[in-house]
Structures are given as structure tokens and as C-alpha cells.
Amino acid sequence: MIVYNNYLQIMEHSIVVGGNHHNTLGVVRALGQKGVSPFVIIVGNGKSSFVLKSRYIKGGLILPTSEDAVLYIKEEFSGQGRTIIYSCSDGVTCSLDNHYDELKDNFVFFNGKEQGRISRLTNKYEMLRLALMCGLNIPATIKIEGNTIPNGITYPCVTKDMDNVNGSKHDMKLFQNVEQLSNFLQNNNESKEILVQHYIDKELEFQLIGCSVINDKGEYDIIIPGHTKIIRAQPVTNTGFLEYYSNDGFSFDKDSCKNFIKACGYTGLFSIEFIRGKDGIDYFLEINFRNDGNAYVVTKAGVNLPYIFYLNALGKDYSAEAQRPIHMQVSMPVVKDFKTVLQGRVSILQWLKDLKRTNCFFYKDKKDPAPLRAYIKELLINRI
User: Fold this and answer.
1) Which terminus of the chain faces fewer neighbouring Cβ atoms within 10 Å, N or C?
2) According to the model, what pLDDT value does residue 357 have?
3) Bridge partner list, 63
4) Residue 9 has pLDDT above 50, yes or no
């Protein structure tokens, strides 16, 4: 355990937990810009963290696992008032979910109203079943185990790991016919269940990044200020070069999305991922019960979702923040996106044009420069 600053005796009103990642840094900066200085727990085995260099934090430490982080919070912060926890990874959300009954009286955190519910819903098959019941469209999906191919699979198809938390997105593969799928299954030494979905020829990939809270009337208030349009990303993530717009004039099934979140019993920050097919249908892919890696673009666009959750948790009025206008943003994780140039997917000239019009960066911030310097230092050390 590595502790930064000795603030453990100070009553904390917010704790941010996540990896040494821009996801965590985005929540820290969103809160800090509103005058809220969180205590930060970095989950990982590193000896240092660029996130903990932020000027906005009161203190922080590094712990090896999400479970260690939750146990530490329970031991150190119970009985210190209404403390708010922000989850920036799937593992942290599930650890909090698995300790729901122990934490619910002392902490406000992303949850599904009962212990274990969110962990169950991170199973992609269960997630898709509930989404379908709530009126969302999903790609034709079949669950298989072993190497026997059932009837009814439509080609081309993609395979996905069932476990949204501990599974590998590298298991996402495209197959054009039954022979290719059969060869993959025969060579797959693990007997775990996987999903096979019909491949959607996409027109657009987009996200709905939002916040779900219970208002003063005891009703769900689900705030989705806008949507991302994914321009390009690496194969196993949608954190890449993107544009963010308000939802004015953008058509999507808002009612089914909100019904789905209510059916999950969920309050907290979230993102829902969709593919719009060339057939004009929006297909639900998954929901993330946490702060999304792209979520800082919403803060930059004008609406501070972490602060909305903070105000609601303290019983304060958040309506003014939720109703702020959205200003279109262009976001680029520069180092990761430059890989698309090295991969030959985009020309250096086009990349430089895209960089020039980018106005949202996940690491660079003139008012909080230390994390970027530390991040570059970490990159150089790891490269060496």
C-alpha cells in the first residue's frame, strides 16, 4: 500500500476508485472543477500513479485489488458522514455490489438496490435478455459451450466472452462461415461459455453516457445529455477518436433505454453502447455500470455528470447542472489514436487534421498539468 498525503483523519465526502487511467482522472477533474476534492484509490500494482499528481485531490493511495479498495474504504471511512464513492472500473463496481449490505448505510455508491444484482447483470447473456425485455433491439444471439455449433446461427457472426468484467475482449472475433467458427471452437481449449452474435453491418457506433439518480419524489431521474459518435478506435475498445453532440435532432429509443436502467434498479454513472446498422435499426451492445472512459467529454461539453451524482447524494438541487446546454466536442486520446497511423488505418495528414480540430483531451489540462507530465514519464519508463 502506498499512501499519498496524510488526510486519512479528515472527513471525506467523496472517494474516486479506479485504475491508473484517464477514466479515473476524468472524474477527479470533473469534481475538482466544482470545488470538490476527492480522496483517490488507484487499483493496481504500480509504485506510482499519474492520477495522484492531480492538483484536485486531497490524498490518495495505491492498492492491489478492487476488493482491497472496498475493504479499506469500509474500515477507514465508515461513520464519517455521508461519503460518496465513484467507480471507474467494472471490477470496482462489482466489489462494491458484493458488499452492498455492509456499505449501504454509510456510503452512497453506484448500485442496483440489492447485493449481487449488478454482478449478475454484467453477464452479457443476462444483460441482453433484460435489454430485449425492455424493448431494445439486440443482434441475434446464441449462447454456446464447448465446440458444438447449434442450429440457428446467422453468418457472418462474432464471438464474445460472456463475462463483462473478467472476460477478455480479445475473444471478440469475426467469422464468415460455419467452417471458420468450427475451427475456432475446436482450438479453444477453455470450456467456458461464449456468445455468438449475428454481425451487424454498421452505419454508426454511438454511446449514451449518463447518470441515473433517485430524485426528491423517489422517482428515477435518468440524465443523458448527448451521444458520442465513434469515428475510430482500437479493436477491443471504443475509447478513441470521437465526436460528442447533444441529443437535439438525434433519434434513439430513449424510453426503452430508461426502462432498461430502471429494470436494472441502477443508480450511478453509466454508458450504453449501440451500433446503428445499415438497416436503420439501433442494436444494443452493452451497458457499463461505472464511469465510462469517454465520459470526460460530457464534462467538457457542458454537463458535469459526477457533480450531479454528488449533489443528489447530498440531497441538493442538481437541476441547473443537468439542464446546461451541450457544446459539440471532438475528443482524441492522442497516444492511443496515433496507433491507427502506425497500423496504416489513417494517413498522417488526416490524423494531424483531426488533432487540430480536437478540443477535448483526456490527459492535457492547462489548469492541471502535472498528470500529463507524469503520464509521459510513465510511458517513457515503460518503453525503456
Assistant:
1) C
2) 97
3) 43
4) no
**Which uninterrupted H or E stretch holds 182?**
helix 178-187
Q: Report whether 239 contacts 295 (CB < 8 A).
A: no
**Of 14, 7, 26, 6, nearest in space to 364 by CA:** 26
* Alpha carbons 340 and 229: distance in angstroms, whole number: 17
**275-287 pLDDT per residue, tens:** 999 999 999 999 9
Which tens digits make up the pLDDT trace of 312-330? 999 999 999 999 999 999 9
Q: Picking from 165-179, 201-215, 370-384, which range would have the lowest pLDDT averaged per residue?
A: 165-179
CA distances from 237 to 78, 289, 379 (A): 36, 16, 20
Interatomic CA distance for residues 164 and 286, integer angstroms: 9
| Buried-exposed string 279-309: b where 16+ CB fall within 10 A, e elsewhere | eeebbbbbbbbbbbbbbbbbbbbbbbbbbbb
Between the alpha carbon of residue 319 and those of residues 70, 209, 223, 245, 316, the distances in Å are 31, 17, 10, 20, 9
Spatial distance between the Cα atoms of 242 and 329, rounded to a whole number of angstroms: 8
| Verdict on whether the full-model pTM lies above 0.90 | yes
> For the chain, how big is the Rg over CA atoms in Å?
21
Cα separation of the two ends of the chain:
25
Least confident of 35-39, 230-234, 345-349, 374-378: 230-234
